[in-house]
Structure formats: C-alpha cells, structure tokens
Amino acid sequence: MEKILVLDFGGQYNQLIARRVRDHGVYAEILPYTTPLETIKENHYKGIIFTGGPNSVFEMSSPHYAKEILDIGVPILGICYGCQLVAWMAEGEVETAPVSEYGKIELTIENSAIFKDIPEKSIVWMSHTDRISKAPEGFDVIGKTDDCPCAAMQNVEKNIYAVQFHPEVTHSEYGNVVLHNFLYEVCHCSGDWQMDNFIETTVEKLRNQIGDKNVILGLSGGVDSSVAAGLLSRAVGKQLTCVFVDQGLMRKDEGDFVENTFTSLFDMNFVRVNCGEQFLAKLKGVTDPEQKRKIIGTEFFNVFWDEIRKQADKGYFAQGTIYPDCIESGKGDADVIKTHHNRVNLPDDVEFLGVIEPLADLFKDEVRKVGEKLGIPKELVWRQPFPGPGLGVRIIGELTAEKIKVLQEADWVLRDEMAKNGYEKNLAQFFCVLPGVQTVGVMGDHRTYDNLIAIRAVTTDDFMTADWAKIPYDILAKVSNRITNEVEHVNRVVYDITSKPPGTVEWE
Ligand code: XMP
Q: Around 198, how many Cα atoms within 13 Å sit in the side-chain half-sphere?
C-alpha cells in the first residue's frame, strides 16, 4: 500500500490533512516530528507533508527536523509552519511578518505542478505571523499575496514544494486540487486506498491472524464496535462472540435493535447481558453526578468481565479502537503522547492470545464508509455520540425505572419528529433530559403536577465547544405538543439555549 507521511509539528489541522489525503485515495499516517529519519526512510513513503504548528522556526526551542530529510529523494510538501521550516532548513530566510495574515486572502500563482488546473488568482486560508523573507537557493517563488511575497515556493529538481496557506481547509478554494496535485502530479500515487480494498485485505489479515481460534468483542451499539463486529464476522463468522451489556440505560428499544441487527444480519455468537435491575439497585438513593458515573462505569466493567470469564475458549480480544485514539501528538515535548482513552484496560486475571483492533488505521468517516459497505444499518453507522453512562446522565438525581421510561418515551418522540422533518443530519447531537423537576400544569380542566422535559440539541465540530441548535420554532412546537400529549407524566417542555462553554453538552 502506498503511504504518505504527515509529519506533525503540532498544527491543529494535522488530522484534517491526513483525512483529506485519504479522501484522495492515498493512505496517510501521522507521526510526530520526533520520529527518527531512519524510521521514515524504512517506511518508503511516496511523499511527506510537514504540517503547520504554532511556533516560530527561528526559535531554537521550536520543533525542527534533520536537514537531511530534504535529500532522501522523497517528495515534500510544507504547509504553513512546515513551509517556513522548509525555507529555514534549506537556508532561506524567515522573519516576523510586518502584517500577519488571518483568514481568506487572495493568492496569485505561477505555473507549477502543484498548481495544475488552478486559476492565477484564488482565495486561500491563511493563519500566520511569520513569513519567508527570502526563498532558499534552488527554490522558485510560485505564489504571493499582498502581504506575503513568498506564499509558495518549489524546488522542482528535489520535488520539494511549500505553501504558506492551508490547502486542507475548505475555505481554500482550490486547496483540494493542491493536495491532489501533490499526490498525483508530484508523488505519482496510484490511489490504492479504497474502502473496498480495505475490507478485503483486513478480512484476509484477520483470517490469517485468528486462524481457528476464537475472538471476543465487547459490542456497545456504537459506531466503532458495530463496524469492528461486522468486519470480524465477515472474517471468522461463528468464531466471533460479541458481548453486549444492556444496563437498561439505552434509548427506547435500542437494546433490541442492536440484538436484532447483529443476530439477523451477521454470522456470530451474540451474548446479551440484561442487567438493568442490578444497575438500578446499585444506584438506589445516589444523586451525585460523579458518583452515578463512577458506579455505572464500575458496574459495567464488572458485568462485562464476569461474562467474558464465563467464555470457555477465549482466544483473542477485539476492540473498536480507531486511528485518532492511536495518534501520538507532535505537540510540545518529544515524549508527550496522547492518552489512549478509548482502549479498554484488561483485568489481570483474564488472558488472551492477543488484542485485535481492526479499525486502528481508520478515521471515523472511514469507519462509517466501511460500516455502510458491510451492510450495517444507517441508524448504527450514523449514530450520534451517546455517553457511556447512557440515560443515567440525562436523568438528574436518583434513577428509577419510571423515570427511565418517561425519558425514553419523550426522547423517542424527539427523534421521530427530527427524522420526519429531515433535521436529523443537520445536528451533531440532540436528546431529551429529565431534570427531575415537577411543575404545575392544566390538562382537560384538571390541575397536574408532573414532570418537566428539557430538549438539548447542539451543533459542533469537535464537541469541545458547542452551540445550541437553532431548531425552527414549528418543529419545536410539534415536539413539545407531541411529548405532552403522548408521554404520560410530562406536562411541560423547555428548550436548552446554553452553549458550551459555559454549559456542557450533557447535563451531568
Ligand atoms: P460534554 O457533556 O462533556 O459532552 O460536553 C461532550 C460529548 O461527549 C459525550 N459524553 C460522553 N461520551 N462517555 C462517552 O463515551 C461519557 O461518559 C460521556 N459523557 C459525555 C457527550 O454525549 C457529547 O457528545
């Protein structure tokens, strides 16, 4: 498989660069700038992309790289900080720009392989305070803006290109063409990274690795574990056992849906552990959010591993870890490594032949593509994020079976109405919350004193920050009307208009 290296100098768009390259059909992997040159040489990359980064190249503490990388015969594309770094490494000059450029800027280009099919003037996205004041010897300036006389340069002989702007962001009008040109005009890639190939080769690899042994996978009903289950099932069928712990805190009918999907569509052993009552017993009288989360987490771990211990022939343990969980970051000190928070800790007393992570090379959007190709229903493949503690963090205060039922019914109405109005895809996440508050109402001339339901809906790219969604009033009105009419013990509906920060997406 052809590979592009995205050498990470701490830029905020490094994952986006790799995703864009993969969208063009070429596999890209991200490694920190501390990766030794020998490792890079051994990997036989078709091309290397230096990412952006927040530093100034002329500060000695900034991330740098051995100059020899410019002479190993592998094409290079420097982006933003990476562009300045190429200039600095090749002994050009970089200075603090008299005028910083942020946002959309007009770029004027000269003829170049990386600018094939791009007009002389176009809009690019800039974000820089330093600039190249003198291109290194052997480099031609091939792009400029009003405030940046060297916004792009090339050394055709060495196949080294550098652009001050960010081709990976959609605000750069022809950014995608720049990346395409680098991959196909400069690196001469063939485009062998396709999801069909991925499924075929992964299934083959899994078969070889697993042989006649068994595999156990914890299935949560989330996208990643579902797609991992689909792949493993295709590879080894009944040698796969999926353990699905239903703690009674999923959305309405979700447990049945997961079970029906996997037992009817896929060849595997499916073990469902229903432990709702056990969870509620443990949570009786508990109102503190953190304590609830802790109890749910611990109980889940215990139930799951108790079930696994029962499996006679354990073989391999599989999990749905995806690529962003595995990337070492190029930010800060050399030894800072991103926490692999999605990887399960195995208890000491359970032994496996090994751990299998069939999706460890994929970004989320690629996981979804694979899921669709494997025939996993859209509801699972495009599922919104759902917190591990489930409805447990959407019911404020003590959990009871009655409260769970009220919330499940109200949430179902919301989802149904959003789907009917085609509004589902516009939002990152929407759900109902039961704040545990009772209010006075009037229904059929009678006074009521019943539950309040809150609707939470957000737009966000990364869930680190979020805005409350501007759902049209008529949809909100319909949802409110249906919830109060159709869900017993609800007499009032409110809409949460808090962004994150200061709120969080979930209420607990
Ligand atoms: P917050 O509430 O922190 O949520 O703004 C951000 C995103 O994370 C999800 N979330 C969780 N996901 N386990 C998870 O797997 C959890 O304990 C958890 N808590 C919050 C939340 O739904 C939102 O998408």
A: 25
Q: Which backbone phi and psi does 189 adopt, to 5 degrees?
A: -70, 160
From CA 481, how far away is CA 483, in angstroms rounded? 6
Give pLDDT tens digits for 476-496.
999 999 999 999 999 999 999
CB 48 within 8 A of CB 5: yes
CB atoms near residue 341 (< 10 Å): 6
Distance CA 161, CA 159 (A): 7
Both tokens assigned to 413 = 């109405």
Confidence of residue 330 (pLDDT cuts 50, 70, 90): low
At 138, which amino acid appears? G
Ligand 1 atom nearest 506 alpha carbon = 2
Please give the helix or strand (H or E) that residue 378 lies within, else none: helix 378-381
> Which one from 2, 148, 166, 254 is the annotated catalytic residue?
166
Q: Cα of 458 to ligand 1 centre, how many Å? A: 12
- Residues enclosing ligand 1, CB less than 6 A? 385, 387-389, 429, 463, 500, 504-506
What distance lies between CA 468 and its chain's CA centroid? 20
Contact between 330 and 8 under an 8 Å Cβ cutoff? The reply is yes
- The Cα 99–Cα 101 span in angstroms is 6
Distance CA 401, CA 278 (A): 12
| Cβ contact 252:379 at 8 Å | no
Global pTM reads: 0.89
Which numbered atom of ligand 1 lies nearest the CA of 385?
A: 24
- Write out pLDDT tens, residues 189-226: 999 999 999 999 999 999 999 999 999 999 999 999 99
CB 141 within 8 A of CB 135: yes
Please calculate the CA angle 69-72-75 and round it to the nearest 5 degrees.
85
